[in-house]
Write a structure and sequence with these properties.
Blueprint: E1 2-4, E2 12-16, E3 21-32, E4 39-51, H1 54-65, H2 75-93
Antiparallel strand pairs: 1-2, 2-3, 3-4
Helix pairs in contact: 1-2
């Protein structure tokens, strides 16, 4: 299995096996330890979806990331944020035909 991690798609990452691409989300928790005052930091992941090709997995991540900066958007603001995120991801991959 191959894992694709990049700061641009954080908190998401992609895993690839011989059958598909899977989009995963990193879940971070910090809890106070029950028996002491120490904080315990745990990191897990959860599957978001399975995709047949890399470009569809990236598009899924872009859609998940749009609309997370604030709680209310106009349609124009939402579309502009979508364009910015999509441009960052596609520029990084340098794939023109996504």
């Amino acid at each position: 299995m191959t894992t694709i991690l990049d700061p641009i798609i954080h908190p998401y990452f992609i895993t690839k096996d011989q059958h598909c691409y899977a989009v995963n989300e990193i879940i971070e928790k910090t809890n106070e330890h029950h028996f002491s005052n120490k904080k315990v930091h745990k990191q897990n992941s959860k599957k978001i979806g399975y995709y047949t090709d890399f470009s569809t997995a990236l598009t899924s991540i872009a859609l998940l990331k749009v609309g997370t900066e604030k709680s209310e958007y106009t349609i124009q603001e939402f579309i502009e944020e979508w364009r910015v995120i999509k441009k960052k991801i596609y520029k990084l991959t340098k794939l023109q035909d996504l």
